[in-house]
Every structure is written in C-alpha cells, then in structure tokens.
Amino acid sequence: MNDYSYENIYEELNVMSSAEGTEAAPVAGEPLPPLRRNRRFQLLWIGSTVGFLGGEAAEVTYPLVILAVTGSPAQAGLFAFVQLLAGVVLALPAGEVVDRWDCRRVLLLAEGGRALTAGSVAVALMAGHLTMVHLLVAAAVLGAGSAFGGPARMLVVRAVVPSSQLTAALTQEEVRNSAAGLAGPPLGGLLYGLKQILPFLFCSVSFAVSWFCVLIVRTPARITSSTADPAPENEAGGMLTGVKALWDDPVLRAATLAAIALNTAGAPLVLISTIILQRQHTPSWIIGTVMAGLALGGLAGAALVGPLHRRLRPGVLLVGVVVMQVPVFAALVLPFGPWWVMAVLGFAMLGVPALGVLIDVLVFRGVPDDRQGRVIAAASMLFGLGGPLGAVGAGLMLQYLSVSTTMLVFAAMLAIAGGYAASRKHLREAPWPIATDQSPLR
C-alpha cells in the first residue's frame, strides 16, 4: 500500500463538503452519525432500490413477451442463457475495470445502459418491430450491466460508509434485494396485463432514477491499482488477481467453496418446488404465491443479520447456514400442501442475508482496497457458476430420477460442503475483521 493516509482523505472530504455542499466528514474522536443520516448512502440506496424493483418487474415479463413474439419456450430459455453467460464471462474483466477506473463512472455507465436497453424494448414493442435479435442483444447488455454494476456499486457504497457501519449498510442492501424480489414480479405481471410495454417503460425509468441518484452523489477518491504500489513481480496480476486472492486466503477459500455449494443447491429450489406443487395439482396462482416465501424469508433473515453476526464467528455462521439447508430438501417432499412448501422456502432463506453480508464484510475488510473490485467480481463469477450447474443438474435428475432421489443428492452435497467448512480450522476460528477507524473509506 502507498502513503495515501486517512488524514489526507479527511482533508479532501472536508474540502469537498465545503465546495459541493455534501456533509462534512466526522472529526477524529467524535462519534459517527447514524447510518440513516448518511445522505450519500441513503440516496444510493433509494436509487438502487428503485432500479432493483424495475429490474425484477421486467425480469418476469421478458419470457412472457418472448413467448408472445416467437411462441417458443426455447427462445425464452436462450434469452436467459445469454443474459447469464454475459454476466459470467464479463465478471473478471469487470473486476479489473472497477479496480483501475472510477467505480462511480462505471456504475453510471451500467445503469445508463440498462435504462436505454429497457427503453429500446418498450419503443420496439410500441412500433411493432421487436425481434428476437433485439431481445438477445438486450439480454447481453443486461448481463453486462449486472457484471459491471454489481462490483462498482459495492465499491461506491464502501466509499461512503464507515467500516463500523458496513454491516448495517450491507444489511440494508439485503432488505432491498428481498423487498424487490417480493414486490417486483407481481408488479411486472400487473403492468404487463395492462399493456405489454408498461413493465419495460417502468424498468427504464427505474434505472434512470438509479442513474440520477449515482450522478448527484459525490464519492471520495479511493486507492486503485493505478495509485497503489506496484505488485511484486512474482504476484499474479490482471483479471485473475481476484481468483488468486480468494484461493490464497484459507478463510475466503473455504467460505467461497461452501457458498458455491449452497448456490448450486439453492438455484433449482424454485424449479423443484414448482414440480412438487404441480404433482400435487396446485393451481398456478397458488404456486406463484408460494414462491413469495423466498422473499419473505429473506426479509425476515435481514433482521437476523445483526444478532447472528454479534453472537457467532464467521466460520460458525457459515457452517450453520449451509447445514440448515440439508433438512430443507427432505422437508419439501413431505405431502403437506402448498403452504408447507412456502414455509420451508421461507426457512431456507433465513440465514442467506447473514451469509451474504458475511462474505461481503470478509472481502471489504480483509482484501486491500486496490484489489476489492476484482475479488468481488471473482466471487460473483464463482457463485454465478453454481446457479446454472444446479439448474442443469436438477433438470437432468428430475428427468431421469425421482424427486426424492434428487433431493437426497442435493442434501448430501450440502452435508459434504458443511462438513468440509467445519473441518477448516482457519475458518472455524476466524474472528470478524475489526473496524479500526472512522474514515468513510474504511
């Protein structure tokens, strides 16, 4: 690291506050104001909440409009595949970019691109010229927007939130995700039922709101690869720096592998639950309501983040969240009806927000500033790989094996992952990283 001291940052922030009207940084030794009074973070959060809501509303309607335009379920699957592929392929380059460039500008480009993309779909629908090629290009842009926007947003949040309030800020982000997941799909279906273009117009406007909120928030400078001391000659650089950092750190390595297993098993939960409910002759509207159990569980789990982080070490919490998923797969096959399935899905999500915040905190406080973007992007890519692997594996097993056997396979995989994590002494004994300063950059 270089000689860029936190005292220098304080001075820059105070000058910025006087010149631009932003709130002044706290004087050393004074208590920090509560997070709710952090105007910059709250503006970012409001913008991202609106953007996430619009994205969730449009996400559920893209398959509907593709079916209306082409009549092909395979084409709808191709859209999802292209969007996912773009996000995975661009994850590592995105990490390199946000570490070397102004992450706020990267976020502005990502939000602006997604706003224009959704708007273009609405205009094409209005003109009656929407084609599958247009939709596939939109899928690629949306995937790229997620790849670049995700780590950029995390670093922008990191730049305006003191380290001692980071857990609270990340918990508020988890609340946003769950709330958008709960409200977005029904809103998108309602808007689509009124008029096809409405969910895409809403999505475009929501990303524009997010873009504007990022635009008016001024963030302090952060250490990047271009300002940090040169890396040692024997250190791997470039896009693989994030992957190497995850692998070299025994705590991050074990946490990442356990989280991949959890994501692999969790990705097909909706598919598996849908098949179970269909075989119980459950009406489609009830199936849709049951899936809201995931978002409700996430909202309830967000309230548990603070207590769990205070009472449990990171490794113990991680092992607990993984192991508690094992009975979920056994409980789902019990023939107790749709509301039982909804309750099980809600239970499955209770520990997920705490786990998400756990990994974010370990990265933010344990990884040097000039590599955080690449490490976040690498983790996102690895977690993202678990999703399609789980979905494809579940589809094949459900095609050729019974539901009970499929559940047993996933339960066994989670048990193995939990056992592996529990056997890692470094992970079990790892303490929470300590916030040692009050700097907005720490």
How are the secondary structure elements laid out?
Layout (H helix, E strand, L loop, with lengths): L5 H15 L18 H21 L2 H9 L2 H17 L1 H10 L2 H25 L4 H29 L5 H29 L3 H19 L24 H8 L1 H17 L2 H11 L4 H28 L2 H11 L1 H7 L5 H12 L2 H15 L5 H29 L2 H21 L1 H5 L13
Helix pairs in contact: 2-8, 2-9, 3-4, 4-7, 4-18, 5-7, 5-18, 6-7, 6-9, 7-18, 8-13, 8-17, 10-11, 10-18, 11-14, 11-17, 11-18, 11-19, 13-16, 13-17, 14-17, 14-19, 15-19
Describe the structure in your own words.
- This protein is mostly helical and 442 residues long.
- It folds into 2 domains: 215 residues, MFS general substrate transporter like domains (Growth Hormone, Chain: A); 198 residues, Growth Hormone, Chain: A (Up-down Bundle).
- The protein is 76% helix and 0% strand.
- α2 runs parallel beside α8, α5 crosses α7 and α13 crosses α17.
- The protein is globular and about 55 Å long.
- The two termini are 14 Å apart.
